[in-house]
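Researcher: Structure prediction, please.
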Amino acid sequence: MRTLKNFVAGGLLATLALFSVACSAADSTPSGDFQLGRDYTEVPSPQKPADPKRITVEEFFWYGCPHCFALEPTVEAWLKTKPADVDFIRLPNTLGRPEGEVHARAFYIAQTLGILDKTHKPLFAAIHEQHQQMASLEAIRELYVAVAGIKPADFDGIAASFVVDSGMRRGEALARTYVIRSVPILIVGGTYAVPGSPTATKTVDFLVDKIRKSRK
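Model: Predicted structure follows.
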């Protein structure tokens, strides 16, 4: 199994390997009839919503995944028009990789410091556009200082904190509950799983409406 360092150094061959092994994102082409088993699946252990009037859409991703990076513009466009009763939640997944753990911790550090809106895209870009390894907290700290203007001491003070560790444990536990084996994947209403693809948000909209109707 290739590490992130191999991925960066290996160029196209490593990228192809990552597509098939690390991300395993299935292509989906909904045609308007949205079929179970083709466009989406049911999760093994559905999760009840905390608020029955709200519908969650949870995106499981990994910063090192090219499919996740490619899906970002689609997700960002969808967020501008998502229904008012939908709550969108990003959840980094480690995929069981050391660099995945670094990236997940980087997400929760940014979230805890309140700078996620300043770091999310730059971290993706650093890896996939600038071809930086970003496989250590030192590299993450340097990036966050540059793009968010935080103090290195603030980063270090929160990096191994209880709140960051707790976020990581909750995210990984939820991924196991949903049996997440590849990313990107979108979980709708704690019930349906939609593989990441350019048309994934259309399937999400269909499922949101399906859930909403089922509650009436």
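Model: The helical segments are 4-23, 66-79, 98-113, 116-128, 137-148, 152-159, 162-178, 200-214.
Researcher: Thanks, that helps.
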